[in-house]
Recover the amino acids of this structure.
């Protein structure tokens, strides 16, 4: 998935987790194409999902 990312630093918010399970969200994964930064600095990893 092109917009799946893992949060490494900072915080982001999403209105809806979309296709992500609670386990994905608990692991720090989020949909970057729908996320809103909630901190001054956000570091993400778009690695191989």
């Amino acid at each position: 998935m092109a917009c799946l990312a893992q949060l490494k630093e900072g915080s982001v918010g999403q209105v809806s987790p979309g296709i992500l399970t609670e386990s994905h969200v608990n692991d720090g994964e989020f949909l970057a194409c729908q996320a809103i930064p909630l901190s001054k600095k956000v570091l993400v990893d778009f690695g191989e999902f």
Residues 4-45 form one domain. The chain has one domain: 4-45. The first helix runs from residue 22 to 26. DSSP finds one helix and five strands in the chain.
